[in-house]
Amino acid sequence: MFLLNQHADYRSGLAPVDAETLGGAGADAIGRHLAERSDHAVTPLHGLPGLAAELGIGALHVKDEGHRLGLGSFKALGGGYAVIRLVLEAAELRLGRKLGDAAFREPEIRAVAAEMTFACATDGNHGRSVAQGAQLAGAKAVIVVHAGVSEERIAAIARFGAQILRVAGTYDDSVVEAARIAGEKGWIVVSDTSWGGYERIPGLVMQGYTALVREALNQLPSRPTQICRPTHVFVQAGVGGIAAAVAAHLALVLGEARPVFTVVDPARAACIVEAARAGRPVKVAHGEPTVMAMLECYEPSPIAWRVLSRVADGFMTVEDADAVTAMNRLARPVAGDPAIVAGESGCAGLAGLMRAAADPDIRQALGLDTSSRVLVINTEGATDPERYAELVGLTPAEVAGRAA
């Protein structure tokens, strides 16, 4: 399925709160935080000229978040950052003084954090980020997981000392349960999706994601007189947070020079595409699970939709087979391209590009041609190594060895 954006708000200005959160000032804030993290390193941007030629486009670059903060996912930028910000804000109120970004290490601040418990629902990656942030600050974390979260991903969360609560149902069910339990216990919910009256913390999570956009723009190759900025960007959605953060930041910093932005959903959990069709956030029916487990969300985040309705240009779905094909294509590249370890959800944006490039109608609608410069984001590496090996026929280490 493919839809062009026909929303009444399309190409109107972002809401002031979204512009403040996701623009240059927001990227500055997450940048200051990352500068205080000893585990921080800029993630790589890979050029894939071989695949670009096959797809009939001028250039293709993949921002590889499989290396982010030791967690293997872009989510490392969001939940942990929000936890640290909230700890610092609570400490400022308690102590009556302004604190810098490095203050979370101070014993006085850690004493405040020790009295705080952060809770969230997760498909796997967001929970790891919240748990890591809580451990870093000296706070507690309680992570709610649903029936579809693999044992490997649960174990990866528990390694950060988080308490794990299991619930039946889908990701959306776990979001409701996390909010309910946190309300009863007085815990702080750090969710990557929003709801009525709950927007600031998901906004902080999305703000964290702007770091990868700024990095990518700085890493793109340049000519003597200009940076070769992307003409097109394809980003996977889930509840919409990563897509909205990337689209908003590009629109705010590039203005009229912003790229054509396409949101990619799994066909089996297409909540953003259905919002585009309906013109408002809607909950889609839960059917057969998608292999893109980190994107298996059936209701969009309202603040993400508020952004995407204004700055996304197109919306499309990909099938499970498309994602698996993209995983294997990155693991077994043509000569001249690097091998990239991309999880089943991580390569959904690339799967969208590959599907669009093969369809003459979508190519024309998006203006994809031999001069197009496309950016996609590998949002996660092999966060479930066993599942990765099943789908690719190679272990993550074997693929990484090819890239070395």
Describe the protein's architecture and organization.
The protein is of the alpha/beta class. The protein folds into 2 domains: 2-74 and 207-403, Rossmann fold (3-Layer(aba) Sandwich), CATH 3.40.50; 79-191, Rossmann fold. Helix content is 45%, strand content 13%. The chain has 17 helices and 11 strands. It has a 7-stranded mixed β-sheet with strand order 1-10-9-8-11-3-2, with helices on both faces. The chain has a 4-stranded parallel β-sheet with strand order 6-5-4-7, with helices on both faces. Helix 10 (241-254) links the parallel strand 8 (232-236) and strand 9 (260-266). Helix 6 (125-137) runs parallel beside helix 7. It is globular. 54% of the residues are buried.
**CATH class group of the largest domain:** Alpha Beta
- The helix content is 40-55%
Give the N-to-C terminal Cα separation: 37 Å
Structural class: alpha/beta
The proportion of residues in beta strands is 5-15%
Q: Fill in the CATH topology of the largest domain.
A: Rossmann fold
Which architecture of the largest domain does the CATH hierarchy give at level 2? 3-Layer(aba) Sandwich
Low-confidence stretches: none
- The SSE string, one letter per element, is EHHEHEHHEHEHEHEHEHEHHEHHHEHH
Radius of gyration: 20 Å
Total number of domains:
2
Q: Characterize the main sheet.
A: 7 strands, mixed
The strand line-up of the biggest sheet is 1-10-9-8-11-3-2
Count of individual helical segments? 17
Keywords: Lyase, Pyridoxal phosphate
Organism: Bosea vaviloviae
Protein name: Diaminopropionate ammonia-lyase
Pfam families: PALP (PF00291)
